Amino acid sequence: MPDLLLAHVPLEHVLTLGGLLFAIGLYLALAKRNAIGILMGVEIMLNAVNVTLLAFSRYVVSPRPLDGHVFAVFVITVAAAEAAVALALAVAVYKHRDTVNIDEIDLLRW
Amino acid sequence: MIDDTGITVAFYVLAATTVICALMVAFVRELIQAVLFLALSFVGVAGIYVVLSADFVAVVQVLIYAGAVAVLMTFAVMLTPAADRHNSETPFWGPAAVLAGLVLAVIVFVAYDTSWRLTGREAFPATAASLGEAFLKPYVVPFEVASVLLMTAMIGAIVLTKDEEDGADA
Q: What is the pLDDT of residues B43-55, one digit of tens each?
């Protein structure tokens, strides 16, 4: 008997969801002025990748299907570390410049 | 274990919630509101994980993303009180939108064009035990490296935000 999820929700729809989230995150990361807004975009992109990893883990033939879950947990770990460091950087820059807008932080401009 | 046709409804409702909340992060004009929509989007993604029968990852998602990362971002917004709270775009938002649209088009094209080797697998049974085994047997080295990474990130965050007056390089 085929599984209900696999019978009713095609893999392509889950991948499209991942693609939509990734595109929204990419737009945020490229277009926002606020450093915290950019970080939000990066986090949404990482979430999109996790959705895709878990979708492949569930749908596609594999000798060790749970490896996708292991990867997702590692991605979440690294994302948490990255969020902590990036937000600390934003706060450190704010202490010197009183702004976190990336177009006003132009010390290295020539 | 979800074993109903309702799983289809659950998937599409959760997917719509997640995408709409992610779009609201882009369109809402107040930074704090953007953080709240982001947290809601993370919870939606956790629901998607449950539908994909990834119970352990869903719990981790709620704890770390909807919990820790959302609180961390709220704190970062509140610790920068004099900064601009307006969630505005740079003048390059047009090219950014075009690039994001192109990436989306490529992903959707590849997703529909490839013939995936699908399985008729049943939903995974509770995954926590087998994940624990995977972390401590084949993936023990990355697991330990991840713990060192977290330690480094924690120390780095503390050093970066420390007041410089009490240091020698003030």
A: 999 999 999 999 9
**Which residues in chain B have Cβ-Cβ distances shorter than 8 Å to A9?**
7-8, 11-12, 51
Q: What is the pLDDT of residue B164?
A: 67
Could you tell me the CATH number of the domain that includes residue B44?
1.20.120.1200
3-state secondary structure (DSSP) of residue A2: coil
- ipTM of this complex: 0.90
CB B45 within 8 A of CB B26: no
Structural domains of chain A, ranges and CATH numbers in brackets: 4-97 (1.10.287.3510)
Do B131 and A101 count as a contact with CB atoms less than 8 A apart? no
Instruction: Please indicate, yes or no, if residue B54 is contained in any of the structural domains.
Output: yes
CB contact under 8 A, A76 and B120: no
Cα–Cα dist B123/A82, whole Å: 32
Token representation of residue A59: 């749908």
Alpha-carbon distance of B75 to B71, in angstroms, equals 6
What is d(CA B35, CA B74) in angstroms, rounded to the nearest whole number?
7
Q: What is the pLDDT of residue B170?
A: 43
Q: CA B48, CA B67: separation in Å to the nearest integer?
A: 17
Q: Please give the biggest Cα pair distance in chain B.
A: 65
